[in-house]
Amino acid sequence: MKEFDSQIKTYLNKELKDVALSPSNKEQLHLNLTNYYQIKKKGPLTAFSRRFRIFLENTYEISLTPVAATILVIILAVNVSLFGISHPPTPGYKKDTSTYYVQQITSSGDSLQIIYVPVEKEEM
Amino acid sequence: MTENQIVQGLIKGNDEAVEALINTYGDKLLRTALAITGDRATAEEAVQDTLLQVCRKISSYKGDSSLLTWIFRININIAKNKLRSSWFKKVSLHDPGEALFTNLPFKDQGPEENLLTQERHNEVLECLKILPLKYREVVVLFYIQELTTAELSSILNQSAGTIKSKLSRGRILLKQKLEERGFSF
Fold first, then answer.
1. How far is CA A3 from CA A6, A9, A121, in A?
2. Coil/strand/helix, residue A98
3. d(C-alpha A56, C-alpha B29), whole Å
């Protein structure tokens, strides 16, 4: 077993000896870790607005200053919390009502549409 | 930087400590993660997740084991979780027939000898990859990182007896698999 140990160690160490993080790996790691500390120091709102700003820049090529991005995030957050996000009713009981919605498929010209029709509980 | 300086620096968010962390432990973590997952991209992700977790949890490091042991504990758990994730099982790009490492020339060898050595080493790594995870993690840390059974016991949070038993079983299995592929010891 001793000889086996010695040979396996030789094989594995020789094979993995040259396995190392590349300079670009290390740079990316450094960036990510220092980013983490910046987020930690400045708080979640700043962190989120920073990510939002980077998203707008990369996806839509819209550049915003950090302050503008933060204000926009606050406005969006207030809107969502006050008015919610609207979506079509799904089959089933709506919350706090006794109205039940069923799916119906109707044709409209060449296309088919799915609509939701309220049905009173007694009719079911 | 000493271990203590790195720890204190990470608690304060010191840039030099972050750099020292990456330079001191990055390569070791990559080798271990690579030997466990068998996939370079996944191993690099595991290293990033490990170092991020180290920065997040550094305040909880009590100094009852070495910093390296503590970091390896995190690294092993993250590498194992990545292996178990259903995403990894679906999209792992590593073809079992493909060599894990290529283009690593060895000094003082001709090209033919190089190729043979390369093939032999890849056979060893393939056999390692086939080992059940519970033996693989012990074998990897023992042979690649050259840790003692006491250190293994601390990293894997298992008794010394369990570690010795797994190491013994792992070595026997590895030896069997290698002998099936024409190795002799």
1. 5, 10, 80
2. coil
3. 35
Sequence letter at residue A39: I
ipTM tops 0.85 = no
A100-108: strand order across its sheet? A92-93, A100-108, A111-119
Tokens at A100, concatenated = 């039940």
Antiparallel, parallel or unpaired: β A111-119 and A92-93: unpaired
Q: Are B54 and B10 in contact (CB under 8 A)?
A: yes
* Cα distances (angstroms) measured from residue A24 to each of A21, A31, B16, B121: 8, 10, 18, 27
DSSP A119: E
Residue A72 has φ and ψ, to the nearest 5°, of -60, -40
Which of chain B's residues have a Cβ under 8 Å away from the Cβ of A21?
Answer: 22, 26-27, 30, 44, 47
The number of beta carbons lying within 10 Å of the beta carbon of residue A37 is 16
Q: What is the pLDDT of residue A46?
A: 77
In contact, B37 and B46? CB cutoff 8 Å: yes
Residue B96: per-residue pLDDT:
43
CA separation for the pair A56, A64 (Å, rounded) = 8
Q: Amino acid identity, residue A31?
A: L
Token look-up 């504990």 returns: B73
Residue A105: phi and psi, rounded to 5, are -105, 125
Contact between B44 and A25 using a beta-carbon 8 Å cutoff: yes
Count, residues in chain A: 124
Considering CB atoms only, which of A16, A21, A33 is closest to B52?
A33
The letter for the amino acid at B12 is K
Residue A113 has pLDDT above 90, yes or no: no
CA-based nearest distance B30→chain A, Å: 7
pLDDT digits (tens, 9 = 90+) for B117-151: 667 767 777 888 888 888 988 988 888 888 888 88
